[in-house]
């Protein structure tokens, strides 16, 4: 009786399933997007079509086709297909899969493919339990994760899997998703409304389909045509792809820094806005700008450091949202400032010298000569005070073993004159 009810529930669930589930692609040709890894003739597509798939980890944001791709594999493979969610799977579930895989392989030579959703939610011990089975070919693992697997998956397991990064869907691809969803439920979606759905989806096909379904149901209930008002009401989720605790944090701050370094003020402001909207700690952003002011601008524009520090102080005084103006002003200034890495190169090279050769003693003429007996040791001998004798500017004051060495080599950009601070004026960068 329980089986009868279970079968009936399974049949009826399709009618009540979300639109995203009902229109899920069942073949590679139906799958929208991901042509960079699934295009005709690609290695991954060929391995799926020829049923010779090896263990892999599908990595990407929500709604880009990770689970769908795994289900397509299930439809096309001759192997047994097992599916677990790392959120709810227990040790007993994993052991059962391994036991069944061993029985199939030994009994009739049938392979087993395990799809493990949210693989990053498995702890180290659980991931290690899968390692021998993957290594000896007992099963083929397909892991899916929204988190960077290089941060979240054990290196031993990762080294035995191919990592496939899936990308957010583009606007054209999302328009196709919206078209299919609207056709499935008989919805009339004007072009401008469809575009509003695409923009609100943020590259997520599931969000786009959920918005189509809910917005259409609302319009039907009101007895009016579907409009952008219904889309705004249905799409409460902001189209953000940012998580300050995961790899998006590193990706965006990297893009922010490189945009300022590359003199692209527009890109710098955009990535600043993305981080602020994503909930990034603004003090972290300010600290990165202070570092960049010396590392990438330096003495080509000495005021850059003052501007960056001032923005950090302003942030502490007024806080957000007002301090977004101060941060934006500083980011634009740093992006437009002339660039020089001479200061950074100077300290990095000097520290490397110290690490390799130790902290060599200053020459005798620079050593402390204020105490009695210092002159008998030769301290201060040969030193010329440049305030009293201009020849003091010409002295080489490095330790004797390093005479002639140059750490600071002015770039010649902005206010960093090629001869400024370079007493021999070689001007090399």
What this model shows, in words?
With 429 residues, the protein is an alpha/beta fold. Among the domains are: 34-165, P-loop containing nucleotide triphosphate hydrolases (Rossmann fold, 3-Layer(aba) Sandwich); 171-234, Orthogonal Bundle (Helicase, Ruva Protein, domain 3), CATH 1.10.8; 247-336, Zinc Finger, Delta Prime, domain 3, CATH 1.20.272. The chain has 19 helices and five strands. It has helices at 2-16, 19-22, 35-38, 43-49, 66-76, 91-108, 124-135, 149-152, 155-158, 171-185, 191-201, 205-222, 228-234, 247-261, 265-277, 282-297, 303-318, 323-336, 342-357, and strands at 56-59, 80-85, 112-117, 140-145, 162-165. A five-stranded parallel β-sheet has the order 2-3-4-1-5, sandwiched between helices. Helix 10 (171-185) packs across helix 12.
CATH topology of the domain at 34-165: Rossmann fold
The whole-number mean of residue pLDDT values reads 84
Taken in chain order, the helices and strands follow as HHHHEHEHEHEHHEHHHHHHHHHH
Strand order of the largest sheet: 2-3-4-1-5
Write a brief structural summary:
The chain is α/β, with parallel strands linked by helices.
Question: What's the arrangement of secondary structure elements?
Answer:
Layout: H1 2-16, H2 19-22, H3 35-38, H4 43-49, E1 56-59, H5 66-76, E2 80-85, H6 91-108, E3 112-117, H7 124-135, E4 140-145, H8 149-152, H9 155-158, E5 162-165, H10 171-185, H11 191-201, H12 205-222, H13 228-234, H14 247-261, H15 265-277, H16 282-297, H17 303-318, H18 323-336, H19 342-357
Parallel strand pairs: 1-4, 1-5, 2-3, 3-4
Helix pairs in contact: 10-11, 10-12, 11-12, 12-13, 14-15, 14-16, 15-18, 16-17, 16-18, 17-18
